[in-house]
User: Fold these one by one.
Assistant:
Number 1:
Amino acid sequence: MSSAAWDRVKAEAARLKAVHLRALIADGARCQALQRTAAGITLDLSREKLDAGAMEALLGLAEAQGLPAMRAALFSGAPINATEGRAVLHMALRGGATPPDGDDVEGTLSRMLAYAEDMRRGPMTDVINIGIGGSDLGPAMAARALRPDCDGPRLHFVSNVDGAHLTDTIAGLDPARTALVVVSKTFTTQETMANAASARDWLEAQNGPAAHRQIAAVSTNIPACTDFGIDPARVFGFWDWVGGRYSLWSSVGLSLAIGIGALRFREMLAGAAAMDAHFREAPLAENLPVLLGLTGLWRRSALGMQARAVIPYDQRLERLPAYLQQLDMESNGKGVRSDGQPVATTGPILFGEPGTNAQHSFFQLLHQGTDPVPVEFLLAARPRETLGAHHAALMANCLAQGQALAAGRTQAEARQMMAEVGFAPAEIARLAPHRCFPGDRPSTTVLYETLDPRTLGAILALYEHRVFVEGAIWGINSFDQWGVELGKELARSLMPIMQGGAADGLDPATAGLVARLRELAP
Ligand code: F6P
C-alpha cells in the first residue's frame, strides 16, 4: 500500500486505540457525520472506532491506491480479473453497467422470466434448485429473505453431495409435480452433477423418459446441458463476465423468479442498480460501499481485528451470513496481490446468525472474550407483518447490543449495580470482575425501511461493492478463486479409493484414515 497514506492511517489507528468508544459515541456531531443514506439504505458508522481524522486518512489511502480509477475500470468492462482474463460486469445484469457488445442481457432475462411466469401458472407445485456455491447461496438466501413475496410453487434447494440432502428434500414431494432447475456455471461441478443425476433418476422412476420436460438448466456451458439431456428450450445461459458468487442477478435467479415472479425479480434488480449508480457516481466521502469497505479495511489492517460478524436483526436474512461468507471470503481470502507478491492482511473471517438468536449463543464472546470482533447489524424499521410488540423488541435488542459493545460497563458501574440490587460487599468484590464489560468493541448498523425485493437488491449490491473496494485497496484480485481447486483435485483422485480401489500412493496420514474407514464399514 502507498506508504505515506498508509503511515497516516496507522498513525490515526494508534491515536484512536487510546480513545474508548464510550467517549466517541458521546460526540453528537461526530455521530451525525458518520451516518449516510443512499438507495434506501442507511449506513451508520457512529459505533466504529472512527472520527474525522481517521476517515480523512482512509479516504486519502483510497485515493493514493487509485480506487477511483479502479472503479472506472470495473464499470468499463476492462478485464480486471487478470488471472482468468475476464471482465467483471455483474452490474450489467441489472442495468447498472453496459454489457459487452453482442451479449443480449435483456433478451436472456426476458426469456428466463417468461419461463418463470409459465412455471408459476402450474401444474408443478414444487421446484428444486440443484446447485452449490454461487449457484445455490444467492437464490436460497433471497428466497428466504423474500418469503412474503413467494407466491409461486414451493422452492427447495439441494447443494450438498451428501445424499442426505437430496433424500430429505424429496421425501414427501410428488415426482409428478416437482420440477428441477439444475444450476451450474461450468456444468462440471461434482456435487451438482451427482445431485442432478440422482434427482433425474427419481423423476424418471415415476414418469419415465417424459421426466426430462420437468428439468431446466442454467449454465454458461450450453453443450454440457444438452449432453445431460435437457432440451435447449429450457436451458438459460449467462456469461463468463459473471462470477459465480455475483450471479444471482442472472439466469441463476431462475428458481427465485419462479417463487416471486418477474415483476418482483425486476424490482430486486432495480434496487441493486440504484446502489450501482450511487457507487459509481457519489464522491468517495459520501459513498456507502466505499465507507463500508474502508471501515472493513480499517478494522482488519489498521486495528488488527481478524473476524467480522454479520448479525441481521431480520429473521428472513438468516442465510445472509452464509451468502456473504462466499461473497467476501472467496473474493478476498487471498495471500498474494494481483502482481503475485505477498500481501500483509486481506479479508477477515466472516460469520453470523440472526439476532436475537445469536445473543443467546456466541454473543458472550463478543462482549467479554479476549479478541474484539467487530459486528455488522442489519435492521428494518418496519416488519412485513404486524405481530404485537415483536418488532419493537427486535429493534430494542439490536440497538442495545451495539450500545453494550461500544460503551461496556466499568467495574465501578458493575459494583454500583450489584449494591443497588442488594449484594453483600464480599460478593460484590468476588463477582464484579465477571459482571463488567470492557466495551470499546466496534459495530456498524445498516438500516432500511422494510425487507422487500428492492431493498434486498440494494443491500446485496452494497456488500458486493464493499468487497471490490477492500480488494482494490489491498491490491488483490477479488474475482478469482484458485484456493478452492487443490481440494477438488485431491477429491477426484481419492474417489476411486473411496469406491473400493487400492489405497496406493497415499501419505501415511490419509492412508490411516482410509484404513480406519474401511474397518468401520468393511
Ligand atoms: O468451488 C467454488 C466454485 O467454483 C464457486 O466459485 C462457484 O460458485 C461454485 O463453485 C459452483 O460452481 P458452478 O456454478 O460452476 O457449479
Note: The longest strand covers residues 307-313.
Number 2:
Amino acid sequence: MKLAAHRTLTIFLTTLALILFSELAYSQPSYTPSQSNLEARKWFQDAKFGMFLHWGIYSELGDGEWVMEVRHMAGSDYQKLAPQFYPVKFDPKQWVAVAKAAGMKYITVTTRHHDGFSMFDTKQSDWNIVQRTPYGKDAIRMLADECHKQGIRIFFYYSQLDWHHPDYYPLGSTGWGAGRERKGDWNRYLDFMNGQLTELFSNYGEVGGVWFDGMWDKPDADWQLSKTYGVIHHLQPQALIVANHHKRPNPGEDVQTFERDLPGENKAGLSGQSVADLPLESSDTINGSWGYNLTDNKFKTTRELVHYLVRAAGRNANLLLNVGPMPNGEFPPEAVSRLQEIGKWLQQYGDSIYGTRGGPAPPASWGVSTYKGDRVFVHVLDTDGPSIALPKPSAKVLSASLLRDGRKIEFAVSEFGLLLKLPPSDPNVFDEVIVLNVEAASPPKPSR
Ligand code: JFZ
C-alpha cells in the first residue's frame, strides 16, 4: 500500500515536472553560466583526465555499440539481448577504484546509447535495465553512488539519437534497418528525452555534467536545445553540458569536446570545427572500439596513452579515455594493466599535468608545454637530438631542471629563443619533463 502510494506520487511529480518544463520552458537562448558552473569549469580544466565507459546490452555481442545498426538488426531481434543481460561481476566499487588509481578524476558513463536502452531506472519507457533484464538493478545509480563515495565526479553520456523509440521520427542518417514504423511525433520524443534528463538530474545526487551525442544524425532537426539545456541547468546549474556534435558550441554548452582528436587537429575526420574559448576535452578509446569488442586487440601502448594525455594537456584540453566493459561487468584486463601504468606515471609526473593550462610554447614535433603558477613544464616526447629550441619566453627563466630527479638543465636565452640542453634520452622515460622556474608577475601566455 505504502509502496503503491509512493509510486503514484513519483509518477505524479514526474508528470508535473514535465508539464512545468513544457509550459514554462526554462529555455536559455542567451546563456550566462552560474557562479557554480564557472567553478565547475575550472575544476574540470584542472582535472585533466577522465574515464569514458560504453556499456550496454550491446556489450553482450562483443562487437561494439553500433552492432544493431552495422548488422541491420531488427528491433525485434535486438530486444532479445535484454533478458540475457546479467553482469555477474559488475562491481562499481572496483570500477571507480581502477579509475582513481589511473589518476582519473571523473567518469562519463553511457546512461543510454543509440539503441535507446536505458541503463538506469526510468519511468519514461520500460526499455530499461530494471524492467527488461533479469539483473533488474539500476547500474547508473550504483555507479553514481560509488563515485560520490570515492570522490570522483560522475558525468552522464546521453544519446539524443534513438534507434528504438517510436517517436524518433523522421529518421536521420541511421536507424533504417531496425524495421520501425514510418511515423512518430518529434515533440513527444523531445518530451521523453527531457523527462529522462529530469530524472537523471533529480535522482542521482550531484552530477558533473552531461555528454550529449547523436545530434549529428539529424543536424537540421529542431532539437530545441535551449529548452533541454535549460532543464539541466535549472536542476543543476553547476552541471557541465558537453555536446559531441562536431560543430562550434551552441549557447548553453559549457565544454567543447573533440572525438578521437586533439583540439585543432583533425586526423580522424570528425573535428573540422574551430576551437572555442571554453574548457576543452578530447575523447578517444584505449583500443579502437568504444563498446566492448571481442576481436579488437589494438590496445594502445601505455607510452602512446601517456603521450595522448600530455599532448591534450599541452593543447589546454582534458583526455576522456574510453574503456568498454565486458558483458560480465569487468573491464578487459588489457585495459586495467594500462590504466595502472598510467596511474603510476601520474603519481610521479602529475604535477606537470593536473591544474595546468596549455603552456607558452606551442605544440611542436618534440612535444608540448604546460604551465602552472610560475612554472612552465616542457614535455619532451619525441626527440633524439641533443637540444630543443623554444620560442623566446615572455617571462625571465630563472632555472631549469628535470622533474624526475631535480637535476639542473643547462639553457641559453637569446633573441632567437630558448635553447634547452637535453639529458641523454632514456627509452624508459615516456616524457622527459623539464621544469622552468620563471619570474612571473603575470602568468605566461597560453599557446592557444
Ligand atoms: C559517437 C557514437 O556514435 C559512438 O558510438 C561513440 O559513443 C562516440 C563517443 O560518439 O561517435 C560518432 C559520432 C558521429 C560520427 C561518427 C562517430 N559521424 O558523424 O560520423
Note: The pocket of JFZ is lined by residues 54, 65-66, 213, 216, 244, 259, 270, 283, 290 (CB under 6 Å).
Number 3:
Amino acid sequence: MAYDDQNIFAKILRGELPAIKVYEDDQVLAFMDIMPQADGHTLVIPKSPAETLMDLDPKAATYTIQIVQKVAKAIEKALDAKGIVLMQLSGAAAGQTVPHVHFHLIPSSVHDLGKHAVQMGDQEKIKALAEKIKAAL
Ligand code: 5GP
C-alpha cells in the first residue's frame, strides 16, 4: 500500500507533533509510547517511509535493529528490566494502528502485557523514565 505521510509517526519525524525522545540519529528515532503497555515502553522507528516491516529497505532494517538492540540495552540497565518484549506489528490484520513501521520495546513479560494502545500514560512519569533511559545510552 502507498505510504501515508500524514500518519502520526511521520508527523513526529517532521517535528509537527511532540514526542518524548530517547535517541535520534540521521536514520532512526526512538521515543516513548504515549499509551505504554508497561513502564518504559519505547518505540524505535526508521526515518525512511515504510508502512510495514515487509516494505522496509533491508539496509534500513539492518540498521534499525542495531538501534533496537542499543535502546533495549539502555532500558535493561536504566530500569533494571528482567525481560524485554520486542513486538512488531505489520498490517492492520496484525493489530498495527500506526502505518509507519516501528518496533516496540516493552519491559515486561508476554504473560503480563497490558492492553495495546488503549490507556493514555502519565506523561510526567513517562518523561522521568525517558530521562533514565537516555542516561543509560
Ligand atoms: P501499533 O499498534 O501500530 O503497533 O503501535 C502504535 C503505538 O503507537 C501504540 O503502542 C500507541 O500507544 C502508540 N501511539 C499512538 N499514537 C501515539 C502518539 O501520538 N505518540 C506516541 N508517542 N505514541 C503513540
Note: The chain has one domain: 8-136.
